[in-house]
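Pipeline run #58 for the internal structure catalog. This entry was flagged by the ingest filter as a single-chain record with no existing model, so it goes straight to prediction. Upstream metadata was stripped on purpose; only the residue string is passed forward. Reviewer on rotation: M.T. Logging verbosity set to normal.
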Amino acid sequence: MTEEESLHAAIQEDIALHPYEATWPQAFEAERSRLLSLFPGELVEVEHIGSTAVPGLRAKPVIDMLAGVRSINDAERLALPLCQSGYATSAAFNDSLSDRKWFMRWANGHRTHHLHLVVHGGPVWHDRLAFRNALRSRPALAAEYVALKTQLATAYPHDREAYTMAKTGFVRAALRQA
């Protein structure tokens, strides 16, 4: 498989939830260290978010990372260097986002990492961490989330956007309770 074929396969990859893997935190730490060494002083902080950051939670085996930058302009400026260091992105998708920039890393036709660049300490930064922390500290909430994700993965196995949008109400409700 060529690199172009691998990227296309990763972009089109179906949604499939996997049992928690104890290797996910190490995969995060390895990529966090790599990014911090590639962009010293550019990334204020890098956090592991998403379901792979919650021990015991079923998840798509994609390491979600939240990287804090000083401004959204800094995030935009980092787009090309990130793409030159193993990430891909959609310029059209990123142009539709005012509060963050999104990147994907892949290997062998599968997504391995999602990287969200956001303003460090801003609303998105706080919300993403608050949701992760709520899932980590409230097992009943995490169980509800897994049940919803399982249902949505069955309903939208080929539509990542619909899958993600369908989780929005749950995430907002959890944040209101946090």
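catalog note: The mean pLDDT is 95.
catalog note: The chain has one domain: 3-177.
status: ready for reviewer M.T.
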